Amino acid sequence: MSIRKSAAIVAIAAMAFAACGPGAATSGPTGGSATAGPTAAGTTAATACKVGVAWSTFQEERYGLRDEPGIKGAVEAGGGTYISNDAKNSPETQAANVATLLAAGINVLVLNANNPVTILPSLKAAVDAGIPVIAYDRELESTKALFLTHDNVLVGNMIAAAVTKAQPTGNYAIILGDKDETNPVFLRTGMAQVLDPLIASGAIKIPAGAEQNTDGWKAELAQTEMEQILTANNNKIDAVLSENDNMATGAVAALKAQGLDKTVKIGAQDGDKFALNRVALGTQVVSVWKDATELGTAAGKAALELCKNPDLSKVTGAVAAKSSGGLDIYRLLLKPIPITKDNLQVVLDAKWITKEVLCNGVTAGSVPGC
Fold first, then answer.
1. For residue 98, what are the CA distances in angstroms to 33, 77, 139, 146, 188?
2. Reported pTM
């Protein structure tokens, strides 16, 4: 219920913004402001393109280790300039950070939003300045932002499919992301595609209180939630669906404290190194790999295109879609890959992780790749 409530709040705030913002669209998405001033991105050659990235947090290892090098590399390879800052999971800090980027004379804003509602005034400030916006990895309810991410509904589906294959019956716990974001909604929707028929048949049950949102996607909060779920159910939990690898770390810690880390099946996403090692060790069934470097590269290339032409619809790969709140937007989705013990070679071949890190503590020859 909290997810649906959150999505409704986001949608209401977004509709208010879309209705009162300058040049608000009523029949379809648009790119940039029609009254852009002389600093508008559309008047700037790609070689003079300054791309500003407002990061939500580097708490998850992927953003600093994978996403940022992808964006920075693509922008600089195209002759542009990359600048960024980190909000450290603070909406107030991110608002100030966006203001700093705008004052620095950026031509495109890549916004990895910390809070999808409170950041809307900052998005509006960019749009008013004629600066096109990319909503990076986290949806924003605005017709003025290109949503660029992996297909998170498919990610949720893949997590649930892998875990239910390993554990087709029993009590399931679900560790959800931050209730104020829309990605948890996408992921949960994908999980439901797999879970609902099994719940209807009685094969799987989600006990009361065994589905929890996690503020800031924090591992320590996920650990506390998992401990409470185990206590409430006398440790009778057979599987856990976690909406990312960081929270799975907390859940696994709670399971390990009860001697359950090798028996309870858990799945998550992001392809974090520690999670892939757990997949190799057998304490995590799946980590859905979203090649964050590929996503960053796509954002960098899209930003360079927007420097030449701020029309969101003209970005290579962008397609018309509906946002969670029903707005007409453009989005660009990349496809994820579920990594299990059977295809670990995929991340090794991609040089996403070294064999030494992946196979740490793993018995040689026990799984492909190790």
1. 18, 24, 17, 17, 30
2. 0.77
